[in-house]
């Protein structure tokens, strides 16, 4: 199954990622050109942050976050302090392939890892709000803004903004405006 999470790695880098969970393994698909791709190409570990949809969407904008650090044998690995749960993932394998689509070709790194430590940080979860899902979808659009037509993005943003304005908080609305591609 695929879950939306935030990966933290390197020197306070965060990225929203769809992580595939199968048995005891976690698989990530990372495209070349990102800090996360560069970090996980050389690092042996990363942290998988299970967090609110709001934090997932916010993490696509930049690396600014409220970090703490897990010490793993003298190596400090960042995690988001407001996560519900963190898991230290040991990278077991990497494979880089060349992919092609209508937008051109790019490198894709398939990273397989195994959780070796987990910690619950925050059990105070809130009820699901439709604005949560809408800001995550806007973050996906933001991350693909160079791969989708402007018209398609604008139509989808208009639809999502209606939901966010109807049921979201002030924070949802402010974040949606920043993600407004």
From TrEMBL:
Domain of life of the organism encoding this protein: Archaea
Domain (DUF447): residue spans on this chain: 3-119, 129-179
Signal peptide: none
InterPro entries: DUF447_C, DUF447_N, Split_barrel_FMN-bd, UCP018747
Protein name: Conserved hypothetical archaeal protein
Residue runs in coiled coils: none
């Amino acid at each position: 199954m695929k879950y939306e999470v935030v990966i933290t790695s390197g020197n306070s880098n965060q990225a929203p990622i769809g992580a595939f969970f199968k048995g005891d393994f976690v698989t990530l698909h990372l495209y070349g050109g990102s800090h996360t791709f560069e970090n996980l190409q050389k690092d042996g570990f990363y942290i998988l942050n299970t967090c609110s949809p709001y934090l997932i969407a916010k993490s696509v904008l930049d690396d600014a976050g409220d970090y703490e650090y897990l010490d793993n044998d003298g190596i400090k690995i960042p995690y988001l302090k407001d996560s519900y749960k963190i898991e230290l993932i040991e990278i077991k394998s990497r494979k880089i392939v060349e992919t092609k689509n209508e937008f051109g070709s790019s490198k894709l790194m398939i990273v397989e890892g195994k959780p070796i430590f987990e910690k619950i940080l925050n059990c105070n979860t809130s009820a699901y709000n439709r604005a949560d899902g809408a800001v995550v979808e806007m973050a996906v659009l933001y991350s693909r803004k160079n791969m989708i037509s402007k018209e398609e993005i604008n139509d989808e943003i208009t639809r999502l903004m209606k939901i966010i304005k109807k049921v979201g908080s002030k924070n949802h609305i402010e974040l949606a405006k920043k993600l407004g591609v």
